Amino acid sequence: MRLWPASLGPASLGTVLALLLALCGQRGEAAVYVVSQDGGALTEVDGAVERAPVSVGAGPAGLAAGPDGTLYLTHPDRSTITVVAPDEARVLRNLAFAGQPFGIAVSGDGAKLFVGDWQGGRLVRIDAATGAAEAELAVGPEPAGLVRDGAGRIYVAERGGDAVAVVDGATMTRLARVPVGRAPFALGLSADGSRLYVGNVRTNDLTAIDTALLTAVATRPAGRSPYGVAVHGDRILVTNQESATVSVLDLDLTVTATIPVGRYPEGIAVEGARAYVANWFSDDVSVIDLAQMRAVARRKVPGGPRALVARPAFARGTAR
User: Fold this and answer.
1) If you placed Cys at 180, which of 53, 207, 212, 320 could pair as Cys (CB 3.0 to 4.6 Å)?
2) How far is Cα 106 from Cα 36, in angstroms, rounded to an integer?
3) Which CATH architecture is the domain 30-311 placed in?
4) How far is residue 310's CA from residue 320's CA, in Å, rounded to a whole number?
């Protein structure tokens, strides 16, 4: 059975599919976004064409992407979660949160949000459409970074407790509490989910957690104030606030490269062969070529960029 006209060769099939996806509003590219805390904005930073930032209100801090491309931003000082359809450059809704929302993760089906209450020391599961709280669990003080794995477990960096809480997202019960270094903030999960990497701000090191055993298996020096963690294949990328660099570590947690970036780097995200680093004090994003292992560009963004997220491919134009 022929799937295209006889006059249209198979080599042209990709062009036809791209046209069909564009007509349906699904262009297929992934995208990277950054939130600017001082500027109250959300900006796409990896496109060939620079888009105007989306105004999201004062003080956004945390950022997560749903499976359909919808973005969720936490505002700790406003007790609000902002829901954004970035391709439409508009805020869809604001969800009230009874507490100080900071770290955030999205369920696999996009129906639930997991939110860390910075002031209240809680993990709260809420309805992504209405913001209604469904369940909560006490965790350590100052829950910072949140990561969800493929099994539906939520990992919570307890910055004030020097540990990582492991929570079953479906039952909202604690599975484990894993001691790490001092002031853990950012978390990065390996592609296969077997390792969780934890940046410990006050001990300047990185802890690897075996997610099957739920124990720490190694802690090694990373850089000065490691505040962001991303995993790319067999490399772990760590932003170092106080030295304006990104450390690159191998799976043995040995530093193999150090890449200069902007001032006070925080969040980091990887998309394709590039990493993107939010430079809080430079008001820009460094773009790192992972083949060359060096920064190749800087993108200016509104003031105080802190968190980034890579949105999945084939999601653009579908967020509602």
Assistant:
1) 207
2) 20
3) 7 Propeller (2.130)
4) 18
